[in-house]
């Protein structure tokens, strides 16, 4: 469990720099240059991600069961993760109405994804992993919206085409992940 927690601290910690130390982040980006900052940020993120994946895998070998979720929660989680994937796609597809409306669709997608997994999993490692991501996404969303207000950020209106591309892209990627990749990568088949 220690490896999972260490990985989460590193991964979510580096992703929280803008929340807790935005002036320092700006100063470091100026000193290191954009590419230098992104390189260091990516390496630290990758190290944290590897540790949290490894730690989660180790923790799943000796599960500490807190509760046994009802079977119906898997179906609810399936629907919620579909919604999460649409939000994630909306964060990358230009000119879509979802991003125009919510401004930070990736963070909403992470919140929905984490909540879905908390519903469907009752082991201690699951609560630590998905609960940490949910808490981080809530805090980061609030912080991002505050930065938008201070900066007077205006998001351009989306188009029907952009919104349709985000929805279709999210559904397609969700289907590939839910029906194939989740089993291959995670070892759990949500629908089979």
TrEMBL record:
Source taxon at top rank: Bacteria
For this protein, the parts annotated as crossing the membrane are: 40-59, 71-93, 113-139, 164-188
Membrane topology listed for this record: Multi-pass membrane protein
UniProt key word NADP: no
| Record keywords, A-Z | Membrane, Transmembrane, Transmembrane helix
**InterPro entries xref list:** NnrU_dom
NnrU domain location is 3-190
The protein here is known as Protein NrnU
